[in-house]
Amino acid sequence: MGRSYLVEEAVGQYLSDFSTRPKACVTGLLIGQCSPQRDYVILAIRTPPREEQNESNKNYHPKLADIDEEWVTGHASQLSRMLPGGLLVLGVFIVAAPELAKDIQNALRKLVFSVEKSIGKKRLWNFTEEEVSDRVALHLCSATKKILCRTYDMQDPKSSAKPADWKYQSGLSAFWLSLECTINVNIHIPLSATSVNYELQKNTRNGLTRWAKQIEEGVFLINGQAKDDDAELLEGQKKTSRGNIQHSIQPFDVKVLMQLSQSSGNRSTATVQVCSGSINLKGAVKCRAYIHNNKPKVKEAIQALKRDIINTLSDRCEILFEDLLINEAPEKKNSEREYHALPHRVFASIPGSNVMLCDYKFGDETAGEIQERFFEMLDQVVHGEAIHIAEEINIVDINPPVDNTDDTQQMQLTKATLLLKFQQNMGVVIAAAVAIFAVAFSFNYFSD
């Protein structure tokens, strides 16, 4: 017996709308959540059209060979940033004419593996052995409306297609549960003299990887209580007269307790190294995760929230580096001290669902630009009143080290001294950069 997929009814209507063109060949992604019993699909999102595509031919490929794999995987990577904890890209779909059916499975197989590989490259966490490793490849015939649903095991590149059950349900995620927390971040990443030639992004990723391990090992209190991993999240909740659990619209409030030492052993050691600079991340981060309401376990909910904590900080750094790379003026002297706004998180609700997706905006971006990006990425109109800002403006201060090196090395050192400072108070903006040039001790302290 293959996997079972419970699918929001709106997804079925969304896919059917593409079959109005008999010769259509439309690609897209399926968004949802995995669970041990079954998987849930709450959104289908077509691949956004390229700018050079004709308005009348947007996303409609006359043949499978015209599908741009790189464009599809790029969309998947961008979209994964917009998914809060608990949500994943579960697979891909193709709406195609009957004459393309012969080669459709090969195209789907190639896409589903490429998408998972692209998204997995930036993850700072790993799936557990108990988790579902299957991803779905869906084919909808544009003429007959017939659906063929199959899955592939992402852990086995040579895996064959397995049949899966595809069932629609109305209001699938209308009563999903949410967990929220605020993490106080204080991460210091020293840059050794031998690593100055590395990219800033690579150094930051290495530091965040160590921090992510601490998040994984943290203790999570749900509504002030430490619960057993195998307990049901809704255990102890009041029931209605019909015997159903009465779901509260209030999210679960989660507190995170972090170990002060990075070492898992009995002894704690400090590393002494010659440094050329440092990267500092400090402040408060808003995190959110969603979990299905079909008797979810505590460990499922906590795991979803852990991954959101890790993803949101990693994604912000990645977005900032991309913005600096695009907008950095080559004629600007790198010895100058620079201030940059760090993107902060915004959420947008999904019609008919309790789930909200997220995005990241810089201070100078307007609500219209955010709405436009949501439409481009999600193929859905998001109204201004549906967008909620989770955090205040954040500040980044780049303070270059003072050194008598040549211009090339000076540029490298400048990029190696980045301070990301999260500010919760919009009225007062304080930023400070720390550059360490000689011997330095690195201490990490986390509090919540």
Shape verdict: globular
Structural class: alpha+beta
Q: Order of strands across the widest beta sheet?
A: 7-6-5-4-2-3-1-8
Helix share, percent: 10-25%
Percentage of β-strand residues: 25-35%
Query: Rg to the nearest angstrom?
Result: 23 Å
* Nearest-integer average pLDDT: 79
Helix-strand pattern: EHEEHEHEEEEEHEEEHEEEHEEHEE
State the major sheet.
8 strands, mixed
N-to-C terminal Cα separation, in Å? 45 Å
Count the beta strands: 19
Number of discrete helical segments: 7
- Spans of at least 5 consecutive residues whose pLDDT stays below 50 are 393-448
What would you say this structure looks like, in words?
By secondary structure, this protein is α+β, with helices and mostly antiparallel strands. The protein has 7 helices and 19 strands. A hairpin with a 5-residue loop joins strand 5 and strand 6 (147-153). Helix 4 (200-216) packs antiparallel against helix 5 (298-327). The longest helix has 30 residues, at 298-327. The protein is globular, with a radius of gyration of 23 Å. The relative contact order is 0.15. The model is unreliable at 393-448 (pLDDT under 50).
Topology of helices and strands:
Blueprint: E1 4-8, H1 9-17, E2 25-34, E3 39-46, H2 69-80, E4 88-96, H3 101-120, E5 134-141, E6 147-153, E7 162-163, E8 165-169, E9 177-192, H4 200-216, E10 219-222, E11 252-257, E12 272-291, H5 298-327, E13 338-342, E14 344-349, E15 356-361, H6 367-378, E16 387-389, E17 394-398, H7 407-415, E18 418-421, E19 439-441
Parallel strand pairs: 1-3, 1-8, 4-5, 9-11, 12-18
Antiparallel strand pairs: 2-3, 2-4, 5-6, 6-7, 9-12, 10-11, 12-19, 13-17, 14-15, 14-16, 17-18
